[in-house]
Amino acid sequence: MRTLKYDVVVIGGGPAGLAAALKAREKAEKVAVLERNDELGGILNQCIHSGFGLHVFKEELTGPEYAQRYVDMVKETDISCYLNTMVINVTEDKHVIAMSEDGMLVFEAASIVLAMGCRERTRGQIRIPGTRPAGVFTAGLAQRYVNLENFKPGSRVVILGSGDIGLIMARRLTLEGIKVVGVYELMPYANGLYRNIKNCLDDFGIPLHLSTTVTKIVGSKRVQAVEVSAVDENLKPIPGTEEIIPCDTVLLSIGLIPENELSKKAGIELNPITNGPKVDNALETSVKGIFACGNVLHVHDLVDQVTKEAEDAGMYAAEYAAEQKSAEAEISVVPEGLVRYTVPTKIASGRTPVTKIKFRVGRPVKSAKIRITSGDQVIFESKKAKKFVPSIMENVNLTAAQLADVQNEIKVTLV
């Protein structure tokens, strides 16, 4: 067993981890990235479609191109990258225990950045009745098979859920000559970005069935069909609406879950809505000196947003490593009404020059304004009403002056 000391240890070598490490290195002398795979870049390596980098690089890139730019930037520094290194524990005193090809490693860190990303929700978590035949995949697994392994998942596909990965795979499979019968979504609205619905479904004539779900998978050795049913306002299947759809493959695009087993081991308090850590405006978790960013914190729409958030986490982690102190969180951030969750959940006054409030709504809203209040005081209200959808994360920046008179909490709502 070897013990290594670093100022900042970043867990995860995807887009969040690389951006956090690069920013941390600007202020910290010794920075390490721990990655369980044999290469850096994370999930972007299998996302061969374009649409990345418009905000960060001001040009359109594929996922591998975006990842490679950060890999190249890291290689130009003295940041230590440990590949094939699986972190198995993180302690409250900021010791990171990992297994690598060289055996067990213990990293003693002054601060830690959690950037482990997220994983896909599986069939078992939504309990679809039926047998367990071959041909049921998560959308991300099918993406890896097609884009990296050159495997064909099937010939006739039904996609359950309208998450962005599923929409993108509907187009990808169609381009490979595979028939996509349709996309079936439990909710009365699509969960993916509008541009993906337009570019991946509408442009290829792939139907999107809202308020409809798969109620049974038919088949023994291989999927032969699925039973789909319309659902009511309580999302319960409506008897008599069942329809059998012949297919040999089912892709599940039913949501993402932050990878927070390590967060739990470190004793970090989690947000029950996002399943990610609760953080303050410096992205510090409830355990001092441990920060979180990217999809391990909450699921983002765009990798560009992940990068910018990760840069903040890396900067504040480096500052903590140098000063070994945290500001006490004084102001609670409370979502109200149609606002489902906020990041951060607490604000430490004076810790950041600008407090970035991010939130999502729980359902589509045709027209509303964002209002942030403290008691009877309105500290922010957007000038114009606009449309809100769950698939798009909203952002509001509050200055120190706007928060100067706030004592206990602020509420984020739509009016």
How would you describe the overall organization of this protein?
By secondary structure, this protein is α/β, with parallel strands linked by helices. It folds into three domains: 1-120 and 256-326, FAD/NAD(P)-binding domain (3-Layer(bba) Sandwich), CATH 3.50.50; 122-254, 3-Layer(bba) Sandwich (FAD/NAD(P)-binding domain); 328-415, Immunoglobulin-like (Sandwich). The protein has helices at 15-25, 63-75, 123-126, 139-149, 164-175, 194-201, 261-265, 303-323; strands spanning 2-11, 31-34, 50-52, 61-62, 80-82, 86-90, 95-100, 103-114, 118-120, 136-138, 156-160, 179-184, 208-209, 212-219, 223-230, 243-246, 249-252, 256-258, 290-292, 331-335, 339-343, 346-347, 354-361, 365-368, 370-374, 377-381, 386-388, 394-399, 409-414. Strands 1, 2, 5, 6, 7, 8 and 19 form a seven-stranded mixed sheet that branches. A five-stranded parallel sheet has the order 10-17-11-12-13. A five-stranded mixed sheet has the order 22-20-29-25-26, with no helix packed on it. The longest helix is centred in the last third of the chain and has 21 residues, at 303-323. 45% of the residues are buried. The mean pLDDT is 96.
